[in-house]
Amino acid sequence: PRDDLCYGLSDKKATMELANAYYESISSSGLVTGQAKLLEEKGWRPPSIAYSAMHGVGHQWAAKSFDTFGLCPFKSVLAQERPDAAFPTVPFPNPEERGALALSQLFSEAEGCDIIVANDPDADRLACAERSREDGSWTTFTGDQIGTMLGHWLYTKVGKSSSDEKNIAMVASTVSSSMLSIIAKREGFHFEDTLTGFKWIGSKAVDLNSSGYRTLFGY
């Protein structure tokens, strides 16, 4: 049923309680920095964002995330918005695969969108692409580029304003780019790499938090 966020697989009430608690924790975490207020400044055309759920479950949660951070609503790639186990519009349902964003790019060009944000069907992978306003060409960012930009932005906007910058920490798996570790050396915050997989990244973040650090980011 369209009104069942769990698609008949779980308890809708319990799921929504968990989801609401998650977004409330984000709202009070200090990560909602007011960056969205820049969209209200005059003299420029703020970016328009297209979002693709890639025939998966991410749409409702992406919309809630945009709302939580005060961002303007995105334009949904309607042909990929609803869950469909046949994945009819993509050769392989992974937004990191070559060609997976082709429909999103056509949609964005028709709708005047500058940025694409796409999840894979179970919404634990993320792809981003940006269209040049000068020549219309697309740049699709790698996971390491996204991770580096997010880590640098979080340190700049949150870490530097912390009461104790030296207690800021970040974590990345050993197969990831070394760029965050280089930024950490330059800026003076703590960095550790881990074995591959979020269970290792998450457990290291917990260990660091227990040792007096504030782990801002891990990927």
Description:
With 219 residues, the protein is of the alpha/beta class. The chain has 6 helices and 8 strands, in the order αβαβαβββαβαβαβ. The strands form 2 sheets. A 5-stranded mixed beta sheet has the order 2-1-3-4-5, covered by helices on one side. The chain has a 3-stranded parallel beta sheet with strand order 7-6-8, sandwiched between helices. Strand 4 and strand 5 (138-140) form a beta hairpin. The radius of gyration is 19 Å and the shape is globular. The two termini are 34 Å apart. The mean pLDDT is 92.
- The whole-number mean of residue pLDDT values reads 92
Going across the biggest sheet, name each strand in turn. Answer: 2-1-3-4-5
Largest sheet data: 5 strands, mixed
Number of helices: 6
Q: Look at the helices and sheets and give the structural class.
A: alpha/beta
Our Rg estimate from Cα atoms comes to 19 Å
